[in-house]
Amino acid sequence: MTEATAPQSFSVAALLAGDRTEFARLVDATSGPIYRLALRMVDNPQDAEDILQETYLKALKALPGFEGRSSLTTWLYRIAVNESLMHLRKRRPDVFSLDTSENESDEEADEPVQVVDWCCMPEAELLSTETRTFLDAAVQQLSPNLRVVFLMRDIEKLSIQETAEALGLSEVAVKARLLRARLQLREQLSAYFAERLPRPSEVA
Fold first, then answer.
1. Cα–Cα distances in Å, from 201 out to 115, 190, 198, 204?
2. Residue-wise pLDDT tens digits, 97-122
3. Does pTM surpass 0.85?
4. Which of 70, 91, 122, 148 satisfies CB 3.0 to 4.6 Å to 74 for a cystine?
């Protein structure tokens, strides 16, 4: 889990009692990563702001029903993910739900068409603004189901268990989706780097 969402203790009793200080502490600790996740899901700053606000409003309303089966942070992630998917469905009604069967083709890990060895790429190229921009665009091309797992696990650094709890999936399903997302991104990045690798004549 990211530093901003490192395990912290929040008092559910205080939150239920309307303790503004405790709520402010919860927001301060979780709003950054939740906003980042929403922004990368919907790719629109204003929508991400709306999702952030709706996440905390819905959390306040639903707090009496919070059973403590997961951490408050994980619970907030689940609300934020659902809000993000709702925004995406408004744009594209055909977007899949997180409840898609784990046995459907979306969970099958395809082999990448090509995999280029990146060992010869200069570090500056790997970390260039152009490369990061390309990677961000590639992440946006993932299906919402794959994108959210990749973002939570590889970007926000949640554990497999935390990701599974936040998304209401089994750990097996999370691992399968994560593998598929990584393979799809590797395929795109391999093609991207292949165009930038020195040709044999250039390194001879």
1. 21, 21, 8, 5
2. 555 444 444 444 444 444 444 445 55
3. no
4. 70
